[in-house]
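Q: What does the assembled structure look like for these inputs?
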Amino acid sequence: MSRLYVDTDKYGYQSDFPIVEAYNAAVKDLVRNAFAKSGLAWKDFVFGPEYEVITKEAMTAIEARLLDYGYRFEPSAMSSSRERPEAYKDSGLYVENFSFEHPQAPIAEPDADGRELRGAGDNVVAHKKNLIGTARYVRTIDKVLECLSGGVPDGTIMIVDDSGGTLTAPVLEKFAGVLCAGGTTRSHLAILTREYNIPCLMNVRLAGIKDGERIEVEFSARAKIAEDYESGRDVSARVWRLQPA
Amino acid sequence: MSDIKLTYAQLLETNNLIQQNADETYWLCAMRTVQESKIFPVSAYILFSYLNCFYRYPSLLRKIEASMSAEEIGDRARHSGIKIVAWTIPCFYLLGREMLINWGVIKPTDAVLDVAYVLDFWKRFQLSWHRNDGNITNRQADHRGQIFPEQKLQVFHADAFECREGDPLHTAAQAFMATIAQYGFLVSCESRLTIHNHGPYKIGDRREMLVRDFRELAEYDYPWLDGVGRDIPYNNLTVAMILEDCHVTLLDDWGSFDSEPEMRAEHMVAVGLYSADNLSEGHMPVGMSSKEELTRTFEELTVLIKDATGKLWEEMAGWTRDQQLDAGALVYFGVGKEFAHIAGVYDQDDWLTIDERAERFRPLLNDEYGNLFLGELVGYISCPSQRMDEYTMMMHTGLPRRALSYFPYSMLNDGDYTAAVDGMRPGVTNLPAKNDRYRTSQGVLIEAEYNRRSREFVPKACQEPYRFLCRDWIKYHYDSPQADELYGFEQANSRLLQGKGAGLTRADIEALRDKE
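A:
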């Protein structure tokens, strides 16, 4: 069996993640076998005859083998699991009565003011005061469409999964505040909330907050800056659940 | 044996340029985390774009350079702005190479003349773009990008209108910038490639100016802006934003910045609006006759952009995954297409299709593999090709890693390498065909006409002898008629500086400003 150039590697072992290792190893197998079969010198194989054997069909076969073992991919984009439910895990985006249940979320009994600690996150900009509002999850295109057609009541605080700026593009400015379960204070959503002057926590860890519940968010907390990330300093702003009004 | 001879010096420089980009790759990526979107398979399209860049950039840059040199393109870009190309061009390309090395599809000794050429093109462009601060990247300038010459900065400084938080201009400008940033992320499929910043430029003891470029807003190269962007009257807009009591501490090669204190609305105290492209005589003022006109202009543009945002979001939300993958990959890959426009050799088949050599890997690019492979490549730096001997201490982390592979010098002994990928190959796209309409400062043109005008048009400041009248020449010749002519090109459309010549200092400019 011929060997690829990268088969001999004093320092490189395996990729950190099993699926990356599995895929990359499968492509290398394909190249190794095709190169051996070609009988060519490498310089006559690469950027030429290889195109006949390292093909889209061969890549499709690599994926098919993994799926045949029962593996299902973790989805990111809604289109992925929508178009290929047989290849992706359930996104969980349509669960009824959903709440984030992050294990790292700080939790405490209600304080003297009836505020029950239910989460924390990284404050994008320190505002003058905290914000009290109504929680509303916006996790899907359908929810954005609901916001467009049904409106967003004043004082609504949006809770979103990812740190991008595209999902919520047509409705972001309608919200009084944002809690985002991903990203950092330099992510796209953070940049946009800063531009819109909408209070926002990134990398928020929440437990048990449901749609429609009243919450208070410590937007008056210190903003988390690049140095805090580099030093690992925790400057979290808190999220409390309030008693029903 | 290859019949192409490499020199030791060539390889040394190529590896140095690779390493400069490797160090910055980790720093930039670690500062941001991977961006995610429920609409776009972001990591997957990023990987897809890297492959397209690897296979196509060498041919496309050579095609561009047959019409105009990289350093002349740098002059034009410095004159009228450009998208983020500092990190993107070399790193997208080199990360494609890194992916293919980890798949065993190429060896670290393959395509060496291609890589040397792409990096050399990038180096010459960057040196020209950064001519005024003498660096190759913002990173080399300790994360600062002082691109513009005095004559342009004086116009931006002089003509900027004062504003304060809560007044009509401030409110309109803030709303505009939020809206256009939102639109920009959408236009660029969740990337920040529509938005570019440079500076800071010192305006006074307590004031600095940021130049904020928003590029490719109207009907232009992207088929998804056909119709959607038809009512947007400018393809590029530049906001000159003056900050007070807010020091921009870094501005990186992605055009993003940090400040001390954290920039808030109240820090913006003056603002101006311009538009420029490769067919304009630099930056043309937009709504800059009066404070009231500028307020109204911001408000009108905000309405137009919000409308376009809604339409574009609806269109993109209905795309298939393959369309999302193509669009995102082509946005990333397409950072180099502005070079082609400047050189007048733009062809949408070059820039709006996925090369069949990249296309064959599409089935690998599911969301999970995309996220994790990209994470290893640019975040963890943990791919086998990136692991080094244990004495190595990588910049920023101290780990035995290196983000981008060098060319081994052993190639000089055994000649065992390949020179180049095999030119251009056909491409595919799942996106609708592009209308032949390009919004420019000379009106809406068809592609052929736009290319023709691009080849013929040379802004006055880029013509001989003005092209080489740099800031070091000005320092000793500011009182010459030729210096006045050079400054006059920028001052021609200025509200306050028309005919003022080259002799004014920053204090003179501040003294004649309208402070109302």
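Chain B touches chain A through 86 residues (CB under 8 Å).
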